[in-house]
Write a structure and sequence with these properties.
The protein contains 7 helices and 8 strands. By secondary structure, the chain is α/β, with parallel strands linked by helices. It is about 30% helix and about 20% strand. The chain is globular. It starts with 17 loop residues before the first strand and ends in a 9-residue tail after the last helix. Strand 1 and strand 2 form a beta hairpin. It has a 6-stranded mixed β-sheet with strand order 5-4-1-2-3-6. The protein has a two-stranded antiparallel ribbon with strand order 7-8. It has a single domain, classed as Nucleotidyltransferase, domain 5 (2-Layer Sandwich), CATH 3.30.420.280. The longest helix has 14 residues.
């Protein structure tokens, strides 16, 4: 994990796009990650937050403070699990308000994350790989102690290798963010450039539609 840890706070400012991921938890830990989208699609996990046994209003207060401390000009889109958007139907009594509705009422609306969790974990694995410039697609701030501590300890479940087990709450929050990002293979195609006159350059020129102006 050390290879993926670097302090890039100096490379972000108020104009650097920011998104968040929220894994809800009350009796078990929950987590939030604040991610910045850097050049060529690289993601930088700027801050993380672990919480437990806190109500939604209390968590919202902590998240708003974290966002304010990072001097973000507007609230970032915060992606959360689809389960938070569904009302809970108890065995007796009335329907329970969805957790996402409480977040919205407290002034911090969530965005429903899409995509199968299995594909989401694959997306996490892809972002841990090396980009064309030799650096990982995913870089984590040394201030994100929860993610740095827990991510390397996650193991595959013996009865279901596609399901991770261990302290996965921070990794879940990261997965929810990366599910909203392009695939690494698509980003690699965009960032890979070929020197003029090389075979790769020629292939790129040949792939351009006829009748268009190619500026090299």
């Amino acid at each position: 994990m050390r290879w993926h840890v670097d302090d890039l706070d100096r490379d972000v400012d108020t104009l650097t796009p920011a998104v968040g991921g929220l894994q809800w938890g009350f009796n078990v830990p929950g987590a939030f990650v604040l991610v910045r989208v850097l050049r060529h699609g690289r993601v930088y996990v700027e801050r993380d937050l672990k919480f437990k046994n806190l109500s939604v209003p209390d968590v919202v207060v902590s998240l708003k403070k974290l966002i304010s401390d990072r001097c973000l000009p507007k609230r970032p889109s915060i992606f959360a699990d689809p389960n938070l958007f569904a009302p809970v139907e108890p065995k007796e009594g009335v329907m329970v308000e969805p957790i996402a509705s409480i977040f919205a009422r407290e002034g911090l609306p969530l965005v429903q994350s899409h995509g199968d969790p299995m594909h989401g974990w694959q997306r996490v694995n892809d972002y841990l790989r090396e980009a064309p410039d030799g650096k990982p697609w995913l870089i984590v701030s040394p201030k994100c102690q929860t993610l740095i501590r827990t991510l390397p300890t996650i193991e595959q479940k013996a009865t279901d290798p596609e399901t991770p087990q261990g302290e996965v709450y921070a990794a879940h929050a990261l997965r929810l963010v990366l599910n909203s990002r392009p695939s690494v293979s698509a980003l690699a195609r965009e960032t890979t450039k070929h020197a003029w006159g090389t075979l790769g350059w020629l292939k790129t020129r040949d792939s351009k539609p006829r009748g268009t102006l190619a500026l090299d």
